[in-house]
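Hi L., both proteins are below.
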Amino acid sequence: MIGMSTNSPRYAIDFAKRLRKMEIDFIDAPVTGGDKGARDGTLTIMAGGKPEVFRRVVPVLEAMGKNIVYTGETGTGQMVKLLNQIVIGMDMLGVSEALALARRTDTDLDALYRVLSTGAANSFTVQYYLPKMIKNDITPGFRAIHLRKDLKYVMDVANELNMPMMGTSLLLQLYNALVAQGFGDNGTQALIKFYEKFSH
């Protein structure tokens, strides 16, 4: 069995143990690449589980993704995905703050996009989401409420380890506020709405 949703590493390990009792192998294989990657078949898939099981399912994963990465034992796929979500969230935070300040200072937004998308700040968030944010398009590619869920899993892991995660903690609170304001079913780029509300 291949589990492709994003959950906690602990859940993946516990689920694999339950399946093992029924002699069913399990691979935790969450994905990244957004709705565009899913449509284009270019997703990056991070897969955790027994190496021999991973090798058997690679052809299945290759039908959906371009980059198939073996991350280690069961649960590591989920852990790498959560680490991925930290970076995605932080990137969205930076893009949102930059765009909000750009609007307040009447900065040329086309010039801003050209610089961010071709310089050191370039990222998937800049390339794919910033043009949407400039057009006030907050339709979901990946819903805000789902990123909030993932960030909660990150903090669960960090809390178990007594590890400070100041940036992720702040990010989770921002997405809590966004969901509370009714933007949970919008895309993660709806974070710009939080800044718009408090920037006037």
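That was the first. Here is the second:
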Amino acid sequence: MLNWYLQSGNESDVVYSTRIRMARNIKGIPFVNRYTKKDAMKVIDTIENIISSLGYGLKLIRLRDLDDITKLSFVEKHLISPEFAYNKSEIGAIAINDDENICIMINEEDHIRLQVISSGLELENLLNLAIEIDKKLEELVGYAYNDKYGFLTSCPTNVGTGLRASVMVHLPALDKTGNIRKVLEVVNSFDMNIRGIYGEGSNVQGDIYQISNKQSLGITEEEIIKNLKIITDRVIEQERLARKILSKKGIELEDKIYRAYGVLSNAKKLTSEECNILLSDVKLGTDLGIIKELNDLKVKKLQTYTRPANLQKYVGQTLDTYARDVKRAEVVKEIINQ
């Protein structure tokens, strides 16, 4: 079976992926911002001791046992955060399954960051899976919890449910029609965050944005999901409306999309940034039925295996920047012609 990032899901013309993340801390161990290395090792040992009982095919991997390319490949797949990959090598670990749709970061900002991920829009189903895993974890390790405030976390903004739900959306038509800023303002006005694909402080790449809840305290998990679903549905509606407007341009839109496809499929060298820009137009063209030469699976492979670390994992070579740019163009042709 294909991993989640190569699958098509609900509303996948606009929604790239959905992620549910829960922040938890183990009762009796100081929080990450106050603990010692000994405390950090105790957290890892605690999770390691119960991992087989937890199930789901999870296996524990310490960050120090992963090379830099593998860590970065996990970042590119949104399985771990950049800060975790770069700064927690000595005291960090992950529990991950083979399908890579469940990944628990250990000793990131909190002792436990439980994450479940899916392609397309799957907020309700992912919440149910996350709650199921979370309840098993709580029985096995015991959480820091307050009857008044809920789950206690290192960052005050996560106190309460500790839940951060996010949806990754592709919004090229809103950008091309000049309406993206209005949509971003509407999302923010509904107490939601909208950011680049790697979260706070990251740049927007290939017209992909991440929408997530701001509030975690004084609201239930189900209410968070319901509110995010309402906002995401409105964004999807506006993007599809913008695509209809663009489609009226006929030959001009087709020309722009096929120019992007022509460069992508014939270039001898492609930078990561250039590839992201071209892929945004090519995905739009594929979703609109303009480009007949590609399907959703090929587009997802292009999106995944042209990123720097996953490119190197795909070809099984360690490459410098120039060599990656050359190899990226070769891989693009290979995937297109598969």
